[in-house]
Amino acid sequence: MTETTVRLPDTTRLVVSSSPHFHEDASVRKIMLVVIAALAPACLAGVWTFGLRALWVLLVCTAACMLVEALCVKLQGRASTLPDGSAALTGLLLGMNLPVTTPTWMCVVGAVMAIGIGKMIYGGLGYNPFNPALVGRVALLMAFPTALTTWVAPLASPLQWAGVDSVTQATPLGTPWAGEQLFSTWELFIGRTGGSLGETCVPALLLGGVLLIALKIIRWQVPVCFIGTVAVITGIAHLAAPEQVAPPLLHIMSGGLILGAFFMATDMVTTPLGRMGAVIFGVGCGVITAVIRLWGSYPEGVSFSILIMNAFTPLIDRYTAGKPFGVISHPGREVKL
Amino acid sequence: MTKKHLHFYGGVHPQESKTASGAAIVSAPLLATYVVPLQQHIGVPAKPVVAKGDKVLRGQLIGEPGGFISAAIHAPTSGTVKEIATCLGPAGNQLPAVILESDGDDLAAEPMPALDWPNASPDELKKRIAEAGIVGMGGAAFPSVVKLSPPPNKTIDTLILNGVECEPCLTADHRLMLEKPEQVITGARITARVLGVKRVIIAIEENKPDAVALLQEKAAGTEVEVRSLRVRYPQGAEKQLIYALTGRKVPSGGLPMDVGCVVQNVGTASAICEAVCEGKPLYERVTTVTGSPLVAPGNWRFRVGTPYAEAIKLAGGVKVDPVKIISGGPMMGMAVYSLDIPIMKNCSGILLLAADEVRQYESSPCIRCGRCNDTCPMGMMPGILSVQIEKERFELAEQWHVLDCIECGCCAYGCPAGRPLVQLMRRAKGEVMAARKAKAAKKA
Amino acid sequence: MTAVIILTLIGVLLGLAIALTVRYFGAPVDPLAEQVAELMPGANCGACGFAGCNDYVQALVSGKAKPGLCPSQSADALQKVCVLLGVASEGRAEKVAVVCCSGTDQYAIRRAFYNGVNDCHSAMLVAGGSKGCVYGCLGLGSCARACPFGAIEMRADHIAVVHPEICVGCGKCVTVCPRRIIKLVPKSAPVHVFCSSPEKAPVKRKVCSAACIGCRKCVKAAGENQMFINGFLASVNYENPPSADIVAVCPPKVLRTEAQPAASAASAAPAAPEAPAATTAP
What we know:
Chain B: The complex is composed of six subunits: RnfA, RnfB, RnfC, RnfD, RnfE and RnfG. Chain B: It comes from Oligosphaera ethanolica. The complex is a heterotrimer. Chain A is an all-alpha fold. Chain A has 2 domains: 28-148, no CATH class; 185-319, no CATH class. Chain A has helices spanning 28-50, 52-76, 86-96, 104-117, 132-143, 145-148, 185-190, 202-214, 221-240, 248-253, 257-264, 275-295, 302-320; one strand at residues 15-17. Chain A is globular. Chain B has 2 domains: 1-7 and 15-28 and 108-355, NADH-ubiquinone oxidoreductase 51kDa subunit (Rossmann fold), CATH 3.40.50.11540; 371-443, no CATH class. In chain B, 28% of the residues lie in helices and 19% in strands. In chain B, the strands form 4 sheets. Chain B has a 6-stranded mixed sheet with strand order 1-14-13-17-15-16. Chain B has a 4-stranded antiparallel sheet with strand order 2-8-7-4, with no helix packed on it. Chain B starts with 24 loop residues before the first strand and ends with a helix. Chain C has helices at residues 2-25, 31-38, 53-61, 75-85, 120-125, 142-146, 172-176, 201-207, 217-221, and strands at 95-99, 113-115, 152-155, 159-162, 182-186, 192-193, 227-230, 233-236, 255-256. By secondary structure, chain C is α+β, with helices and mostly antiparallel strands. Classes of the chains: A mainly alpha, B alpha/beta, C alpha+beta. The interface between B and C is medium-sized, with 27 and 23 residues.
């Protein structure tokens, strides 16, 4: 090879940056899209159970959340954050947490609460202390308790449109326990019961949840500890008073427990960082859920439990900060702010 | 070899890309000019002992140690000192340098007398290591003689030779172990004699089975033990390596000698062997020149002071223009912007990255996914720290152990938000050290 | 209706409780301190050396500090403070910060594209930043963020510009700048040297076409002891500054009355090219 053919690099267009120069092919957008994909089976199950209106509610919530985020970002004068997919995910989760008969305008109000109040006023993705979808749902539950607790019985055909004339039905948890199950265990399992449109079908939710665990997007500790704690507490209560307390299996398979444990108590932004933190968070959610279900005035406590534990997240992080390699005691605990 | 290896916590497994591992080491041809920096090590720059116009011979001393933590510098070839000026270093800083014009004859100076190392006293060997200007060749370039002179209150019982080469792309140490196994083993035994230790371990990652087998064969019958370790970045980081081999944890803020260990790069061992057995000072080293834009990546024995441009020419030049040129490996190396930077004693590789291999950092907010927590081999919380540092709360960062950061880059490697975490840590470490210094100065 | 009455009553009672608490348990407030505090700018910038305006007021009232330490206080307010405290006014030289660099994108070469934390200190850690001149303004705005008065503008052509009409001379930017190129100078000084590089002229010119070349023309043109050369860099003697018309003699136009004007749309250098597009890692 002669000197002339050797081409030296052009040094005028080089980039300098800090190490490392290799990166894993990971992005926020990818994570959000995988979670959305993991929710797809449960959404389909919701449509199958509650008809086409379920699809409408999901679409309205998703579109409204994206619109609100786009608007907020525009007002704040920042670049669009829609491509990261977090607004779409919040919208989808909000829709899944609503009854199929929720009026369209109410869905929009929920989206405004979720994205506007739950997320953007804190500065957007990464800064919100509470799970935005749950902020939206709980705001609606407080403001419109009747609409949010009117449950339609599963429809005969997915092509039907659930409306005011549909047969209503109490949720398994909404009916006082009278010593016997209203629904068969199979009905509970596949979600042929009243409830929020995305929370009833256990196998579809489990499919998505296991996918997320396998892809290491969520920590298994959260759902296992959450569901386990609810099972243990309701199990003990059931053994103590079988006439007043439903068996733990019913508690696990009804209400938003599976949905909440796999998809909302695992939201990255609002839950602790480490493994130990995940265990504490899961157990805390489980205890609060069980307490609300057994002794509270609401039949269902998953949303509240997750929001309450969200508030404890910074504290959990501080106290579970592992001691670094080679450090004897952890001064992080002595940090005074 | 049946002993179970301990695993350090965390770590990542980046794509290895060791394309140059099959390329045998070639001695680089003589150049017309060498730019020999007088500070190729951590510590005080060397003091030049030659002046403009002086004739020097290869291996002749041109810079003597400028202090306790400093190292001697030798001429890479024979020729005339053109100038004593400055040159650009890999960190973008100006370094004092001797510009040497080669006379093309490459005449060697009288070598130092070879030492009969098994019978030489440790002090004699140490003196030779200092005279030969040997520094840690793995990257930090800490003067070896200082490392080999632990304070009397520390007992050293283990010498670890680091042949892990966990950085992707780099193959210089691998080739050296394959081509000069005797040198590496002899260097290890000399070092062991200096330290007076009986236990010598050569650590190699499992992805270099040929080197493991060869060194095991050559080390048979000596006190040197060769161990293969699982492939996990940063297996070659001092603290992680000591833990994996001995189960000892270097205390926070401490040094390997605090747990009775000394860790040395295989390249350094080879250089020690050459200095002691042949009397040859350290003026050349094996460096990998690699990266997808290059025509012919490979490993060369470069003389210190060879500009990067010459190294890239040897590798056949580039097919496409790189976006990044890195001094060192992809995980811990420094991005440079000039090809005038000379190869120094600690330069283990020159890496070129094309546009499709580089990901830009973004300053997007932390989404608290926790990946950095899981991969940080020091068990720190880089995510939380980075938020504190962005708010310039350095005191808080100090309490959260930012000084323990080894800057391995595992956190930023996997960060989905693309945050420049290592840069933030480096910033905070600098600020914390400066604050400590100011505090100490105030007290005094 | 009852609810309204009850709430009103609770409101009145609580209000009364607050009033009584303040009346009987409140910490005594020095009326003098209150008056002095009203004359403070209230920016809490810390330039006086105290933790904030209130802290300084306490020191003033107790006689531990002299008036006039606050750079952002107007002369009128300072006079009033002196009257209140009953001390003679010593006056105060008003200072202003100047970024001593002319290296906008138009003049200074860029040696590499910097990608990382958007902060001057952090950029210094990566190959010393992206500008060719190691004494030039990095243009990432650490000073602008540190300025409590918003007096520093970060221009799109990568240079910081101090607006002297807003700057009060608190000096925060001076300590923050990692390149140490911001100087505090008397507000009355008419001209400044907008270059900080002590290098030899050829070295400087290689990286920046708006650098002081050390030609000494200003020194000759200025009166006795008004300008001097420090190494290869001219500097103004701020004790005895030359008049503004000296700027005409400076060949590279580094000696100026104000910061580099922003390149006009017509003569602007082509916009800095974007860093090469990079996709995700393999």
